[in-house]
Structures are given as structure tokens and as C-alpha cells.
Amino acid sequence: MFLDHPSITATNAQTEADRLERLQRVYGYAMALADSAGNPGFVDKLTQLHDHKGTLIVFWHAEPTLEERDYFSRAWASRVGDGTTLVEHEF
Prior knowledge:
This protein has 91 residues and is α/β, with parallel strands linked by helices. The protein has one domain. Helix content is 38%, strand content 23%. The protein has three helices and four strands; from the N terminus they run E-H-H-E-E-H-E. It has a four-stranded mixed beta sheet with strand order 1-2-3-4. Helix 1 (18-36) packs across helix 3. The termini are far apart.
């Protein structure tokens, strides 16, 4: 059974569509890390990913583990992300 993906939004998405594409890549990267770690429940905790002027904000409906937070830190710092460590978590 496949569940809904988290909503993906970005500040200025209307004028900077590449921000949404970048978030899709970051989501895929984080999902790949979760899959390789044997963490199938990871996606069920997510509600939204938002790019606010270069800061990734990850919204959760259940508190993430440190490892789960790290998936997004690694993805955002990578070449598919923003290349920074500006990641915040909200739940």
C-alpha cells in the first residue's frame, strides 16, 4: 500500500519553479536513505517539506528520530539540495 506523499511547497514557487523541483529531489534522496536503512515507516511521519528562502523546513506529525532528521540534513547539504545545512524540523 502506497501512502500519500508529503506536500511540497516553497516561498516564491510561482516565480522560482526550480525550488519545487529541488525539494522533489531532496525528498527522493531522503527516501533512498530511509530505504537503505530499512526504515519503511519514515514516510508515514512526514506531512510537508517547505523551502523558505534556502532553509529546508520539514514538518512531521510524529517526532522523528535523530537518524530520520539526518536523512534531510544529508539530502539538503548534497548537490541535489541547497548545499547548506539550513534545515529545521517542526512537529
